[in-house]
Amino acid sequence: MRNEEALNDFYELQEENRNFFEVSKKETVPNILTSIDTIVNKVDLGELNGLDAFSLFKKLEKAFTEAKKTIEGIALDEAEKFGSTTFESNGQKYELRNGATRYSFDHIEEYANKKAELKTLEEKYKLAFKNSSLKLSSLDEKTGEVLELPKVTISKSSLIIKK
After folding, report:
1. By CB distance 3.0 to 4.6 Å, which of 24, 79, 114, 117 could disulfide with 28?
2. What is Dmax (Cα atoms) for the chain?
3. First to last CA, the chain
4. pLDDT attached to residue 23
5. Four-point Cα dihedral 39, 40, 43, 47, nearest 10
């Protein structure tokens, strides 16, 4: 009888959790998205300071990132129970991917030497580019040849929030 009661309690808890999840999915998420849209629209209309909104979004981003990290291991364990790399749960499709293999060669002397040579070479060509931008010579000092200039791309500016 005790096992039966425990099992019933477990099923009730599962049902409560399912109900909470459905309410969250149907009410909480749309409310959050509506709030985000409202903030963006108010910034667009000049009714809200863009820096204040940016700061708020950074705080929310941090909170969501930390929450996701907190449950990631549990979610991965749950995903592995499906026994497949692709699966569906509660109307959401998922793909389980293995972590990438990364290699480090920095401790290998030959690699470290070649890497240092490459860094020196890159610095030489960066200097040639900077010199050419300033209308200065971009000649190789040792050979007297004009150095081919590197292709340069400039990333977009960003705003960092300091504490």
Report:
1. 24
2. 94
3. 58
4. 72
5. -40
Using CA atoms, how far apart are residues 119 and 115, in angstroms rounded to an integer? 6
Contact 142, 163 (CB under 8 A): no
> Using CA atoms, how far apart are residues 61 and 69, in angstroms rounded to an integer?
12
Q: Are 95 and 85 in contact (CB under 8 A)?
A: yes
Is residue 125 a contact partner of residue 150, using CB atoms and an 8 Å limit? yes
Among the listed residues 40, 36, 41, the one whose alpha carbon sits nearest the alpha carbon of residue 61: 36
**What is this structure's pTM?**
0.68
Q: Residue holding tokens 């290699």?
A: 103
**95 φ, ψ to 5°?**
-135, 125
Query: What pLDDT was estimated at residue 151?
Result: 95
Give the CA count within 13 Å in the CB-facing half-sphere of 134: 9
- Contact between 61 and 44 (Cβ < 8 Å): no
> What would the pLDDT profile of 121-156 be if each residue is shown by its tens digit?
999 999 999 998 898 888 888 888 999 999 999 999
Return the pLDDT at 82. 92
Degrees to nearest 5, angle at CA 69 with 63 and 75 = 125
